């Protein structure tokens, strides 16, 4: 027996003094209301209503039980309201600032179809880690080395003019003998100012004979893109970003540079939703090519390696 449903029928009938009117108020057929009240009476072993006359009246037992029944119905209604609010609880997620707004909006729409109320908070790599650490967000898409990543975004160099070779060799960026020849810089945007990307590129540049100033971190993506659009400088970026800025993109021959991302922070349920249910949509936001059904060799995002 559904005790809450039976108590709801009991309260409705007692309030209207009629099985017909009470059932209508409860939104159930009169026969269902009668069966539920009868089941409740059988459960308690005593009659709740005196049915000897046309009007339905509470017995003394029914009068004593009515307050408890009302409290149970009210509590069930309150629980239903709490459950609805819990389902609508926003899952705040820190995401890379490089995610295009249109793709983030599509991610939010896709999440709502799955009954996930997503709120995205774009931030740089250190800020995303801080937000997760201080619990200001429920989870974050954080930068990690390629080997432990759930999402992988290949990086290359982008320029305003076409790059004839299929890949960029860093030694080709060495300045010539003429002192008037400008040194082409490689501009690292803040999203890639992390040790596992910045340091290998800096070491490779030094090995290739570039001067230290030729590999530099830009204050922002806008500053880096503006420099690439207005000079011979090269922007370290994903193919998606190069297309957004109408730049010509080629991968770096050596070292191979790949942004890695994984889910950090939050409860396991939230991490699972981001790493499985919304895996493809997040890959689209990050610019990861052709996401596979099983990320990271079958490892779900956020799982330990």
Automatic annotation (TrEMBL):
<dbReference type="GO" id="GO:0003700">
    <property type="term" value="F:DNA-binding transcription factor activity"/>
</dbReference>
<dbReference type="InterPro" id="IPR000847">
    <property type="entry name" value="LysR_HTH_N"/>
</dbReference>
<keyword id="KW-0805">Transcription regulation</keyword>
<dbReference type="InterPro" id="IPR036388">
    <property type="entry name" value="WH-like_DNA-bd_sf"/>
</dbReference>
<dbReference type="InterPro" id="IPR036390">
    <property type="entry name" value="WH_DNA-bd_sf"/>
</dbReference>
<dbReference type="Pfam" id="PF00126">
    <property type="entry name" value="HTH_1"/>
</dbReference>
<keyword id="KW-0804">Transcription</keyword>
<protein>
    <submittedName>
        <fullName>LysR family transcriptional regulator</fullName>
    </submittedName>
</protein>
<keyword id="KW-0238">DNA-binding</keyword>
<dbReference type="GO" id="GO:0032993">
    <property type="term" value="C:protein-DNA complex"/>
</dbReference>
<dbReference type="GO" id="GO:0003677">
    <property type="term" value="F:DNA binding"/>
</dbReference>
<comment type="similarity">
    <text>Belongs to the LysR transcriptional regulatory family.</text>
</comment>
<feature type="domain" description="HTH lysR-type">
    <location>
        <begin position="1"/>
        <end position="59"/>
    </location>
</feature>
